[in-house]
Amino acid sequence: MNKLKSKEISAPTMNGHRPDLRIIDGAGEDAGAPAVKVSRLRKTYPGGVEAVKGIDFEVAPGEVFGLLGPNGAGKSTTIGMLTTTVQPTSGSAQLAGYDVATQPLLARSVSSVVFQDAVVDRALSGWANLDLHARLWGVPAERANRRIAELVEAVGLSELIGRPVSSYSGGQRRRLEIARALVSSPRVLFLDEPTVGLDPRIRHELLDVIVGLRNREHMTILVTTHYLDEAQRLCDRVAIIHEGQIVALDSPQALLAGLGREILEFRVEGSTDAALSALRQRGVARGDSFAIGARVTVPLHEHATTEALAVIESERLRVSEIATRVPTLDDVYLELTGARLDEAA
Ligand code: ADP
Hints:
By secondary structure, the chain is an alpha/beta fold. The protein has helices at 75-82, 104-109, 126-136, 141-154, 170-182, 200-217, 228-234, 252-257, 272-281, 305-314, 329-337; strands spanning 6-8, 22-24, 36-44, 50-59, 64-68, 90-95, 98-99, 111-114, 188-192, 220-225, 237-242, 245-250, 263-268, 290-292, 295-299, 319-325.
């Protein structure tokens, strides 16, 4: 049992509703508990869609953990269950030891979420939004002011924070959303597709902000994404999720290392099976080489490209569009599921 010292606070009302929020002072929390622990978690929506089919994972305090998968894989449903907005069908999930189903208020008190949809009030200034959120969370005024000033600087909004949010660009608003989620100093931050809908330059800027926050706040972050570069750049470990199941879970480096340093790709005129078996018999391809349509993908592991090319030539394989490249998480996904991340969905 967690012993928790908490006190009820008098939070301001919002739309006439008084949120039942508490300040948690941390004493008595289970310090040894994983930041996130998910066991056999499952969600079947009414109507029968099995969105999440029994997943297990743990996230250590301070870790950045990614759920990577295409649209429809079950990422948002998982975040919904962890943030207590979606009721699990079975299994369990805990945040810092608090069960999301049986202790939802406590689970929420140690976490924050940035959803894809905006929640900030566009008519108010950035500062007023953050201040309102701090008051809802019962953060004492002086601490709130210090915290807000720190966060505004960390997310690079100092110049704009007095302006109405309606004047912010998409990327600036997203940064404000992140600052808002951090006002309560959560132990676990959920980011649901944080850069979706932003143009590439703004995406990269936002990723820099997240990496910077990660380094200074030492909090646990669980991020969902269908962008490979995002997962590779941000995450200590990544769970690759496909049709509601985790099909691989490791550090991006370990997932990639399984494929070796280089990948050879080419198109075959004729039978791809014959080409693959020739390359395998000659020892330059392993069981993890595969063909989709006319395109053959061969992780080279310890072999040099020249060895593979020599085999292609001596076996008289009719190939075109030969190229080598470094492996990406897309190759890991492709090998595991037979689909590309940006094509699946
Ligand atoms: P992702 O976040 O990876 O795109 P989701 O968790 O949103 O995936 O969706 C997983 C599956 O659950 C999809 O097939 C989706 O259509 C379905 N789904 C999501 N929300 C609901 C809902 N409220 N009711 C019924 N089906 C849903």
